[in-house]
Amino acid sequence: MGKTITEKIIEAHIVSGRFVPGTEIGIRIDQTLTQDATGTMAYLEFESMQVPRVRTDLSISYIDHNTIQSGFENSDDHRYLQTVAQKYGIYLSRAGNGICHQVHFERFGKPGKTLLGSDSHTPTGGALGMLAIGAGGLDVALAMAGEPFYVTCPRIIKINLTGKLPPSTSAKDIILKILEIFTTKGNVGFIFEYGGEGTAVLSAPERATIANMGAECGVTTSVFPSDEMTRIFLKAQKRLDDWQEISADPDAEYDRIVDIDLSHLVPLTAKPHSPDNISPVRDVGGIRVDQVCIGSCTNSSFKDLVTVAKILKGNVVHPEVSLIIAPGSRQVLENLAVEGYLTDLIMAGARLMESACGFCIGNSQSPQTRGVSLRTSNRNYLGRSGTIDAEVYIVSPETAAASAITGRLTDPRDLGMAYPQVNMPDQFHIDDSMIIKPESTGESSAIEIFRGPNMGVPPRNDPFPDAIEGEVTIKVGDKITTDHIVPAGTRMKYRSNIAKYSEYFFELLDGRFFKRAKKIQDKGKHNIIIAGLSYGQGSSREHAAAGPMFLGVKAVIAKSFERIHAANLINFGIIPVTFKEESDYERINQGDSLEIPDARKTIEENGKMIVKNVSEGVSFEVSYNLSDRQKKILLAGGALNLRHI
Ligand code: MIC
Ligand code: SF4
Q: Which of 60, 100, 276, 362 minimizes the number of CB atoms within 10 Å of its CB?
């Protein structure tokens, strides 16, 4: 039987297990990436492993998230990251050089390689035919130390694209269509593999938009073939040597094949407050728009911004709209400048932001009260923009530019102009001077690591207790994201200080969570979280597990979990369990006393786990699915403990 692209890459990297979907496998990691918001904790963890130098082909640390630097904390963290990188053999992409995924795609991604990144949008690299996976910082630290990455061997869904995109629709509309089909939940353990004649004509940056936002469906990653389009892109990046052809065998078998005829697509939007709340732009109607933000790792390539420049040319942004544009990388910015498109953006009244995450993570450009913001980014969760009652719509760059002109949500087909043709350059202007190479082995021992006063240490945990005896600290509903658990935005400056950061946990849902959790912990009891479907969607931030661990959470009982968050919980000694009968969720209330007698023994023996609700006088069964490796980690109280045993 023929092989899929995924199978070929996994088989070339597998170090434990076999390619049997649903079972745990370990794969060798060629490249790692971190960004500054998750990187500080990942490198603190790496330091604690006492490995003299990274053991990957390439490890790179990007500074792109916390670039507003209000207060000393982020600047200190950036200096820490720079010195750690120098010492341990890690490349460093300086602040201003661009968003990790865009820069990695341009300068480092390689067909056929594996990439593990401490950011959920690491799958962007899948556009180049690599297996690029997002994970918690601890898993990335372990990969830097030369350990395999363990993941459930995926089931593969082929997305067969046919036909050709009509004018004024683009890659963003394709992935929004896919989100409409698959939604943000229920896709854990799958990989999207793209093929078909519609895929063959998509350029690498268009593929990157699609691979990037596959993360919102919760799949392990998305993979494209490495073909002529990949070759053209890598050649334009002066990286032709990195190219190799990779395709699925004609008789490869998939778990499922989904056909999408691109010629039927129309401009789409994801309405507030979820990336799967999809509707055609025309159906939403011409609602008033206050802000338009173009950028983020999803849609900030040269192609995207030239399209925007061409639509805006000769127009001035509507008087009631604030138009924000953040090119994805310094390379994109430089190419826009050299080719003259920057002038068109400036003349149209765009407010240019630095090449960084910026508005996407809510640390700047928060919309006005009850404001309507159109964004080309990938997530529109409640409050993520920094304004709790803002209405954020996710759109394509074409829809964003058209709406910036009219001041209303506008289908670009209704703008009455011909859809601009964008020709990609045969050769980009390339300048890697903002990427610092690490010191050679001999020099690195002399490097002293800088640590600012805000920098904490990775929190440590006791071994898993014999029994769980605690209280339900919080009960939450379906699709709770890691943004709900640990807020980003202006709180992100505490990323390297879990003790301080924990004061803000769950603040978007319940401002009293921290005090309650502390009180329960001080009584010597365990904290327990109850959740609905797809708990832990979104970001890879391990703080959403490390923080609860610090506050004495021992179990999360949910209807279902997302992959990265479930792995992070185990890495930090918290057991993720699911309700055997979903209806039991209804019979638990916040504040109930819960007990899992013999929890430790039950896990060791793979026994039936019964939770006693002491307050209600009822018991219910929960399920867990742990490999022997995961059991060891959990029982040790987390992966760091295990490494030190
Ligand atoms: C995000 O888009 O939510 C982030 C910020 O990039 C996160 C990482 C983080 O929380 O630092 C992600 O996607 O993993
Ligand atoms: Fe940055 Fe936004 Fe991309 Fe996350 S989704 S990496 S915050 S641009």
A: 276
Same domain, yes or no: 206 and 297: no
Q: Residue 300 sits in a domain of what CATH number?
A: 3.30.499.10
Say whether pTM exceeds 0.85: yes
pLDDT, tens digit, for every residue of 322-360?
Answer: 999 999 999 999 999 999 999 999 999 999 999 999 999
**Ligand 2 pocket, Cβ-based, cut-off 6 angstroms:** 65, 99, 119, 121, 296-297, 357, 360-361, 377-378
Residues 614 and 487 in one domain: yes
Cα 610 from Cα 15, distance rounded (Å) = 36
Longest Cα–Cα distance of the chain, Å, equals 71
**Do 230 and 326 have their domain in common?**
no
Mutate to test the pocket of ligand 1, among 40, 81, 120, 482 (most ligand atoms within 8 A of CB): 120
Q: How many domains does the chain have?
A: 3
Give the pLDDT of residue 644.
55
Residue-wise over 73-98: b if at least 16 C-beta within 10 A, else e?
bbebbbebbbbbbbbbbbbbbbbebb
**How many angstroms separate the CA atoms of 309 and 327, rounded?**
12
Q: Whose CA is nearest to atom 2 of ligand 1?
A: 539
Residues 353 and 472 in one domain: no
Cα–Cα dist 119/65, whole Å? 11
- Nearest ligand to the CA of 357 is 2
The reported pLDDT for the residue numbered 645 is: 39
CATH number of the CATH domain containing 531: 3.20.19.10
